[in-house]
Amino acid sequence: MNPRDGSVITIALILAPLAKLIEFVAGPAVGGPDILAGLSVCVGWLCDMWYALPAGFVLGLIEDVVTARCLGSRAIALALASLVAAGIRSILNPDSLSSKMLAALCGTTLADYVTWGILASRGIRIAAPYFFRSIWIPSALWSLALIGPLHFSVRRMALLAGTVWPPPGRKGRETAL
Amino acid sequence: MRRRFQYKKMIILAVLVAASVALMNVTGKPQNGPSFWGSLFQKASKPVSSAYLAVKDRFQSLKVAFADKEALIRKNEELEANLRQLRGLESKIQEVEAENKRLRDLLGFQENAPGDYLVAEVFGRDPSKWFSSVSIAAGSEQGIEPDAAVVCQAGLVGRILSVGDNLSTVLLLTDPESGVGAVVQRSRDLGVVLGGGGPESLTARFFSKDADVQVGDLIVTSGMGSKFPEGLLIGEVVSVRTPQPGLVKEAIVRPSVDFEHLEEVMVVGR
To answer: Where are the beta strands (DSSP E) in chain B?
Structure first.
């Protein structure tokens, strides 16, 4: 793992509980933005695919632990969202906002449908009209709106955090000396 | 000649004395209003005095304005600060009044309903869009047990899912994992009310495909099982689905509780 990937994943893992805390205090997340799905897509977009996959899993696990219901359902979903974002990045223009928006749309849609399916398989049935109207469509629309600011924020913070690592080829002690 | 002067003096003196006596009589009498001359003077002087007073007031105010500008600014700031304080106080009073009304409603419900209730404040909501639960500020130290029914003045809210020392999680009726034994209040047909349809929609599944249920019927808890007391209002039927052969009858129920604005709830004691 290079320092950049490490910084991006660290920043995402710090932001995830904060995002959940805000949602816990501010009110229900229904109809609102799915910040963790957005973070997973950002991680997938900015990191190597094989680091993004476990990072997305851990982000989903944070949501599962906070919710404390059906552990693993969001972990799998967000891992897939990161993977899809990383995959789309490898075939589209990585500097274009449209390609990031497409990755966000695909990632959050896949995550929502996977979660819906996992919950249904566990006997937790969410009515289809409610899923489409209040979960998937708002989540997809919010992901389109949020991916730009989220990507910018995570990237800037990761660059800032990346300065704590020593230059390539040198250890921290050698740099200090 | 000299004698004439003496008379003249006497006459003048007498006239002066008479005039004085007359004046004393005139001025000594009580009067209802001003004298003729007095009122004439007042009328004549009124425009002049009014104009004088107006000019004087104007100059006075200008003088005050210029002389006490700093004092006025300070006074204005004080008044604005007082106004802000009063507005804040007004807002607090309104909040206290609203809380008072809610608590009175709860108290009224508590007095009319059997059983022991513990009032608890809702302080957090499930941060997931997939599940519906709230956190309340009461736990095992306050005597709350898992699966206890949770109600508010509008009806059934849900049940206790997990209990901490001083906080508990309430599984709302709208949660996809929620299921409550229910009965149609009018026809007494039994069924189960399920969540998973969002905060404004519950699904009632009846055990009989011939269940007598109509739009507008009230659905209440059946009391079967040990989780919920009998007769707690769940909601009102808004539509009925005609069953396909072999399937049970279903109805869409609008919950009586506004789950989006829960602030205080009551946990039913055992």
So the answer is: 117-125, 133-136, 149-152, 155-163, 168-172, 179-184, 190-194, 202-206, 218-221, 233-241, 250-255, 264-268
